[in-house]
Amino acid sequence: MQPAAGADPPGEPRPVEGIEFRDRVPGGPGLVVLRDPATGERIMASMRWGLPGKGRSGGAVLHVRAEEIAGRGPAREALRRRRCLVPMEGYVQRATRAGVRGRFAVSLADGAPMAVAAVWQESAAGPCFAIITCAANRAVGAIHDRMPVVLPPEAWPLWLVPGLVSPIEVWDLLQPCPDDRVVVRQLPVRRRARAVAAGADRQLDLFAPGVALVRPGRPPRRQRPAPPRPARADRRRP
């Protein structure tokens, strides 16, 4: 992934070329789409995932609730001035509903990439972003009560309008996507190797064909640990 040539101001998002999609991890880099304030053209930039502050888990703010983003604080200002889209093939969600176990892959039913609503801001470590979540639709709601805001293509122009926008103008966009637009697949249970090559792309591995069911099957049996082997007798001669 190579940043495009040019003298970008410090703290500003930098467009990238030679794009290489990889998994996003909290605090790591991710690609976002936004409007260039100077030209109005859509550009793709690399930003760090997580806004400064204390999130629900004690770390950076990775997700912002749509119900709260129009309130007070930095997220409201970012909603008014600094909106972006996070492109992804889909995402992996661990089930939190009672009686449901396992990890599930959520993607669009037509196989197209998702465009997830997000906001960004500048920080001491550079530009960073947070994904906006909403109440889950019926399909995702079977495994979790929240989901990212997935915007359809016709909503992209309004969401990416550069400059000052009233939160009311974009509020109607922050809704769950229709149930029939997403597919939820259970991922197979596999043991991963401890050593993973640096920079290895695991996204396609996570989206390996699974069971197209919302409810997972019976959990795998737990193998009983083998009894301890007796110590070998000392064979040395006296």
What's the short version?
This protein is of the alpha+beta class and 238 residues long.
Could you explain the architecture of this structure?
One of its GO terms (molecular function) is single-stranded DNA binding. InterPro entries: SRAP, SRAP-like. Keywords: Covalent protein-DNA linkage, DNA damage, DNA-binding, Hydrolase, Lyase, Protease. There is one protein chain. Helix content is 12%, strand content 26%. Strand 7 (91-94) and strand 8 (103-108) form a beta hairpin. Strands 3, 4, 5, 6, 9, 10 and 11 form a seven-stranded mixed β-sheet that branches. The protein has a domain at 2-89 and 113-178: hypothetical protein yedk fold. The longest helix is centred in the N-terminal third of the chain and has 8 residues, at 74-81. It is globular. With 238 residues, the chain is α+β, with helices and mostly antiparallel strands.
Mean pLDDT equals: 73
- Terminal CA distance reads 67 Å
Rg (C-alpha, Å): 22 Å
Based on secondary structure, the structural category is alpha+beta
The number of helices is 6
Percentage of β-strand residues = 25-35%
InterPro entries: SRAP, SRAP-like
Region (Disordered): 1-22, 215-238
EC number: 3.4.-.-
GO molecular function, one term: peptidase activity
Key descriptive features of the protein:
12 strands, 238 residues, disordered N terminus, 7-stranded mixed β-sheet, alpha+beta, hypothetical protein yedk fold, 26% strand
List the helices and strands and how they pair.
Blueprint: E1 2-3, E2 16-17, E3 29-35, E4 42-49, E5 63-65, H1 66-69, H2 74-81, E6 83-88, E7 91-94, E8 103-108, E9 114-121, E10 128-135, H3 138-141, E11 146-148, H4 156-159, H5 167-171, E12 182-186, H6 203-206
Parallel strand pairs: 4-10, 5-10
Antiparallel strand pairs: 1-2, 3-4, 6-9, 7-8, 8-12, 9-10, 10-11
